Amino acid sequence: MALSRFAHNPIVATNDVKPIYPDFQVVGVFNAGVATFGDEIILLLRVAEMPIQSDEDQVLVPVLSETNGELEIVRIARSDDRYDLSDSRVIKQRGKFAYLTSLSYLRIARSSDGIRFTVDPGPAMLPDGPLESWGIEDPRITQIGRQYYITYSAISSKGVSVGVAVTEDFVTFARTGTMLPPENKDVAIFPEKIGGSYYALHRPVPKAIGSPEMWIAQSPDLVHWGRHRHLIGLREGQWDGGRIGGGAVPIRTHEGWLALYHGADETDRYCMGALLLDLADPARVIARSRVPILEPEAEYEVNGFFGRVVFSCGALLLDRTIRMYYGAADEAMAGVDIPLTDIFDTLH
């Protein structure tokens, strides 16, 4: 493929962002929602912070109190065999998530050319309320008229739900409540009504029967969502055989709705692929990537907080080129330009 990674990737790294919590460090700036606003390109970054680990015998874990919203630090002894500390992102107990090792919130980076970004000095959205006590993550931004709808993962001890916030200026953000209950994530709302309905991609996570696969839903008003239908499933033994989920907000092209999605294999290697959906009925899949359109190959994609990961939450259509912004190794933001024809060549 004739893809072109930005020459100065990563475009936003951890050392570009100062932590907002005392005695914390920024460990990830990644998985940003993308929007055009006036003369600017906006990246709504997921920023992950964790306490500075000053004690070799303990792991310090940040959570927000579900009763008063105050920041609390949980101390877990590394020698405590009740906990599995093998994954840098999570702490497990009896096979289930007990804590996240970092606390995520949303922060804006701005650019006039879409390549060089400046990070705002403070947060755009902080976790708020008991359903966000473990953080907010992975925003997608859909512009409808003057309003920008932000869907994001809300994490707490109750699970992963989907929150929605609306802004017109990227200064004030009004939460509208929970769009989908646990466990669900990777929600991207289509940028226009189609046949009288709004559509959204989402990814429920069945625990007993089924797999983490992509679904599509409809709404008359962006509030009430229903008519949920399965869209695509896993492909065993392939690059998207472990889990899949929506990536960037779908983009209208002459050929159909282009939905960039992420796929992981059984070894947790994350790549990006594409779907082509019918313009009049986006629940109908026209074609799907047989091979990834982007896979972790560069050093900053292979090595990082959680390596071998490329993961996009937003992209722009520039003439016949897709400019995709993506998280690299769950640590930094990067950018790539991919000709539409090359993406379409992966479809079958």
Question: What does the model show?
Answer:
This protein is 3% helix and 51% strand. The chain is mostly beta strands and 348 residues long. Strand 17 and strand 18 (226-232) form a beta hairpin.
Low-pLDDT sequence parts: none
Assign the CATH topology: Tachylectin-2, Chain A
Largest sheet: 5 strands, antiparallel
In angstroms, what is the radius of gyration?
Answer: 19 Å
- End-to-end span in angstroms? 16 Å
Supply the CATH architecture: 5 Propeller
Please identify which CATH superfamily we are dealing with.
Glycosyl hydrolase domain, family 43
What is the CATH top level name? Mainly Beta
Give a count of the beta strands, DSSP E runs of length 2 or more.
26
Report the structural category: mainly beta
Overall, the morphology is globular
Can you write the helix and strand succession as a string?
EEEEEEEEEEEEEEEEEEEEEEEHEEEH
Number of helices: 2
Estimate the mean pLDDT confidence. 97
Total individual domains: 1
Instruction: Report the portion of residues in β strands.
Output: over 45%
- Share of helix, binned: under 10%
